[in-house]
Amino acid sequence: MQDNRAEQFNGDQEVDVATVSHPVFARVYERLSVAMDRAGTAAFRRDLVAGLSGRVIEIGAGNGRMFSHYPPGVTHVLAVEPERRLRAAAERAASTAPVPVTVVDGLAQALPAGDGELDVAVVALVLCTVPDQASALAEISRVLHAGGQVRFFEHVAAEEASGLRRAQRLVDATLWPKLFAGCHTNRDTVAAIRSAGFQLDELRRFRFPATSNSPSSPCVLGRATKPARTVQQ
Question: Is residue 72 classed as helix, strand or coil in its secondary structure?
């Protein structure tokens, strides 16, 4: 893995980005994501962005499998992807997307957008890989205006004290993050979203595939809102 930090400027804002390269994982994921979509992930992607409108930032856009699902009410998608091969694939996908999509390099902990600039943030199978969930979610909160929404589809920690939860801890401590570009299966992402100050609006828990006991099978799909600022008297 190569992770060379550099600086990028977005208007007057200095943004720290990284040249990220996971060439083996990227090649595998390009094929795996197609198979996953055929097996049911595409339906989750459609549910994730249903009814969206306005300006959207998609963090960790991968090879752009989400782009075809954005509804016509979306005026623009800023798609952030740090991995070079996947970003190139996303750029190709953007050319046929039903809404305007701009694909850029960037990191979840240093998003290339101004404060309160965006209406919605979309994360799909991403918060398991970021080095620091709290930092990433703080950045998402920063770029959303008050009342802005987070749409999330993530695989998460299994039930506490379950055999699967113990298996997740084991694989996270050994080979899983190295094989899957930093992915961690044992994260309580819903709790992290709440801790970042978002108000949880909708939450669905399920297994994908439905009968699987894979460490990555427990999933959540939901919506959360950045609360409006309160004026103290």
Answer: coil
Q: How far apart are CA 103 and CA 159, in angstroms?
A: 36
Identify which has the larger pLDDT, 61 or 21.
61
Cα 177–Cα 191–Cα 113 angle in degrees, nearest 5 = 75
Cα torsion 30, 107, 52, 210 to 10°: value is: 50
Residue 218 CA to its chain's centroid (Å): 16
- Give the span between the Cα atoms of 54 and 67, in whole angstroms: 15
Q: Where do the domains of the chain lie, and which CATH numbers do they carry?
A: 2-225 (3.40.50.150)
Q: Is 175 left (phi over 0), alpha (psi -120 to 50) or beta?
A: alpha
Cβ atoms 56, 74 nearer than 8 A = yes
Give per-residue pLDDT as tens, 135-158: 999 999 999 999 999 999 999 999
CA dihedral 52, 142, 109, 101 (to 10 degrees): 30
30 vs 48: CA distance, rounded Å: 20
- Are 173 and 143 a contacting pair, CB within 8 Å? no
Compute the distance between CA of residue 143 and CA of residue 168 in angstroms, rounded to an integer.
32
Question: Could you report the per-residue pLDDT of 93-127, keeping only the tens digit for each?
Answer: 999 999 999 999 999 999 999 999 999 999 999 99
150 DSSP assignment: E
Report the SS3 class of residue 174: coil
